[in-house]
Specification:
The structure is a single chain. The chain is of the alpha+beta class. The chain contains 4 helices and 5 strands. The chain has a 5-stranded antiparallel β-sheet. Bound molecules: zinc ion (ZN). Residues 28, 30, 75, 102 line the site of zinc ion.
Length: 132
């Protein structure tokens, strides 16, 4: 424990290359599903629309993999100021569905590969779709 702490403190702050959250323009949450969980995904979508329809842009209900997403999915576009409200609700109410959450900066590959947040289980993305 002492070693871990001392190692952290030995790295000078100037050597760290932290990214600035101010570069996050918005967030996406992608709700994943398949044929077996389609109805649950639709029910969750309706609940999201009823509760957050004014603050979340809900994308198409894709019953096939699109872009880097390995499962069927739909996208929720969330402004930064609504992130906590929406993501807190999703963490408690996603049921058996997995949700891939990522920021939108100017670097789509990094956003999807290195800055992913998962609710439920994680999945391997098709990063080739993003030039990865
Ligand atoms: Zn996205």
């Amino acid at each position: 424990m002492d070693n871990v702490g001392s190692n952290l403190y030995r790295i000078p702050a100037s050597a760290m290359n932290y990214l600035d959250p101010a570069d996050i323009r918005s967030w996406h949450a992608h709700v994943y599903f398949d044929a077996a969980t389609r109805d649950a995904a639709w029910t969750l979508r309706e609940a999201i629309e009823a509760r957050f329809g004014k603050i979340v842009q809900i994308g198409r209900f894709h019953e096939r993999p699109v872009g880097p997403h390995p499962m069927w999915s739909y996208q929720l576009a969330i402004a930064r100021e609504h992130f906590t409200t929406v993501v807190e609700w999703l963490t408690l109410n996603h049921g058996a569905l997995d949700v891939f959450v990522h920021p939108n900066t100017t670097d789509a590959l990094r956003d999807h590969r290195d800055a992913a947040v998962w609710i439920g289980h994680s999945h391997r993305l098709d990063l080739g779709a993003l030039g990865g």
